[in-house]
């Protein structure tokens, strides 16, 4: 039995640093034995099917292959369709009423607790808001991520070495659900 996954790569092709062409990422994934390989945008999303492994082992395998091929480390999170769909469906904000630039999801490599964000003065950042989900964080930023003061504070709070996170806007969240659908 095969499962369709999305690989989320953190911090590639941003500002001319850590360049990883999507065609080469597709070739790399195919070389690892995966089928149905597709990429979405240039910011590090790939979709593939695998008949072996789990999310953690597939992420580690891809991260290792990227470092070997390109000479730099990339954090990789792999999630299956059911998880991606559940995250989209569990959004605590009225996604259908918002612009995609206003809503973001940070996917984490492991569960995070509210304790990680206990020092964040959430009322001071209103109307921006965040909520924790299942290995994810939802961020409502009415002026967009680039202008979000709350996003800056959250990013400083969340980057512990044992947990990696990578953020996607709502359009990408929905597109990954679509691309991984059976």
TrEMBL record:
<dbReference type="Pfam" id="PF08002">
    <property type="entry name" value="DUF1697"/>
</dbReference>
<protein>
    <recommendedName>
        <fullName>DUF1697 domain-containing protein</fullName>
    </recommendedName>
</protein>
<dbReference type="InterPro" id="IPR012545">
    <property type="entry name" value="DUF1697"/>
</dbReference>
């Amino acid at each position: 039995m095969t499962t369709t996954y999305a690989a989320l790569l953190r911090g590639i092709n941003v500002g001319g640093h850590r360049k990883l062409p999507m065609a080469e990422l597709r070739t790399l994934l195919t070389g690892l034995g995966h089928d149905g390989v597709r990429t979405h945008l240039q910011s590090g999303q790939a979709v593939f099917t695998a008949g072996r492994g789990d999310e953690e082992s597939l992420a580690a395998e891809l991260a290792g292959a990227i470092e070997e091929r390109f000479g730099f480390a990339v954090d990789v999170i792999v999630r299956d369709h059911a998880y991606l769909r559940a995250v989209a469906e569990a959004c605590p904000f009225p996604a259908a009423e918002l612009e995609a630039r206003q809503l973001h999801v940070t996917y984490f490599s492991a569960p995070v607790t509210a304790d990680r964000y206990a020092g964040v003065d959430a009322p001071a950042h209103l109307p921006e808001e965040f909520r924790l989900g299942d290995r994810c964080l939802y961020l409502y930023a009415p002026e967009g991520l680039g202008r979000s003061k709350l996003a800056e504070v959250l990013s400083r709070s969340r980057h512990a070495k044992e947990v990696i996170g990578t953020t996607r806007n709502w359009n990408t969240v929905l597109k990954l659900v679509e691309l991984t659908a059976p």
